[in-house]
Design goal:
Number of strands: 0
CATH class of the largest domain: Mainly Alpha
Order of helices and strands: HHHHHHHHHHHHHHHH
CATH architecture of the largest domain: Orthogonal Bundle
CATH superfamily of the largest domain: Farnesyl Diphosphate Synthase
Number of helices: 16
Largest sheet: none
Length: about 300
């Protein structure tokens, strides 16, 4: 029996169509979200399929928006996304989906009573990504980031079994930190797509404009501007850290490992001297293993400790 089959059995997912959908979501996670996937292995087996379902849904939508090889225009993508998203929201109301990815996600939403509005916000941000090319202020950017990243954390919190309502606010901070780290790393790639995901007014404080970024040279001004954005990632990361202790003990190591590894992207950006135009910062495998190994031992131990009541 495969590891994934054992996870589905542990989660009590027996319907063959549902199992097939959950497996498809898991494969999306394993292929496109290697750091997240590594972190999910620190969760109890019974929780992993539900996290895969949420990631699979988000990735499936994001693929349509980001696929540079697609022959669809942005207008056609927006139409597809709108129709697909409305069908998904309707599927939540009826309690079942025929879509090969959404079937598992709807099941996850219903099992864990995840608010539907989180998915509405996500779909709104995906639509924004088809029309908005840059953001003047951080407040403008936050509208997009809330739906593209913060709500992913909010969707996951019920599965992670919070012990305090404050866990939701801290999950929001961590989701935003993850997304901002991603934006800093991917400046060059995003320019290829015609997008800038750093607040233009904050870049301007260092004499950096969109036109300067499009020259694709890591000047001293660009480096200073990126350092300012990295400072925000670290501030949000620190603000989020207390929320990890507000989760069930058997969920904490997963989220803490994700925090260290994903926010660690900005450490790598600094190590490569802010060269974000010709190199893609990645957390080295030795670092991933150094984080995951001890976390695995702690996670196994935590599964034998009952979660606190409250």
């Amino acid at each position: 029996m495969s590891l994934h089959s054992r996870e589905l059995d542990a989660a009590g997912i027996t319907d063959p169509h549902l199992r097939e959908s959950y497996d498809r979501c898991r494969r999306l996670n394993a292929e496109h979200g290697k750091t997240y996937y590594l972190a999910t292995l620190l969760l109890p087996p019974a929780k992993r399929p539900y996290v895969h379902a949420l990631y699979g849904f988000a990735r499936y939508a994001d693929e349509i928006v980001d696929d540079l090889q697609s022959t669809l225009t942005d207008e056609q993508k927006a139409q597809w996304l709108g129709e697909w998203g409305q069908a998904f929201l309707a599927d939540i109301d009826r309690g079942w989906s025929d879509d090969p990815v959404c079937r598992a996600t709807v099941d996850t939403v219903l099992r864990w009573q995840i608010p539907k509005e989180h998915f509405t916000a996500f779909l709104h941000s995906m639509t924004m990504d088809l029309t908005v090319r840059d953001y003047r202020t951080f407040d403008d950017l936050y509208e997009y980031v809330y739906g593209s990243a913060a709500v992913i954390g909010l969707q996951m919190v019920p599965i992670l079994e919070p012990t305090s309502p404050e866990a939701y606010a801290r999950a929001t901070d961590l989701g935003v930190a993850f997304q901002l780290a991603n934006f800093i790393r991917d400046v060059g790639e995003d320019l290829d797509r015609g997008r800038v995901y750093l607040p233009l007014d904050e870049l301007a404080e260092f004499g950096v404009t969109r036109e300067v970024l499009e020259q694709r040279v890591a000047t001293s001004q660009v480096k200073a501007a990126l350092a300012g954005q990295i400072a925000r990632v670290r501030m949000l990361e620190e603000r989020a850290r207390p929320g990890i202790a507000m989760l069930s003990p058997d969920s904490r190591d997963c989220i803490d490992a994700a925090r260290v590894l994903y926010c660690g992207i900005v450490d790598e950006v600094e190590r490569q001297d802010y060269e974000v135009f010709t190199r893609r910062a990645k957390v080295p495998m030795r670092r991933r293993l150094a984080v995951a190994g001890p976390a695995w031992v702690r996670a196994r131990r935590a599964r034998r400790v009952p979660a606190p009541v409250g």
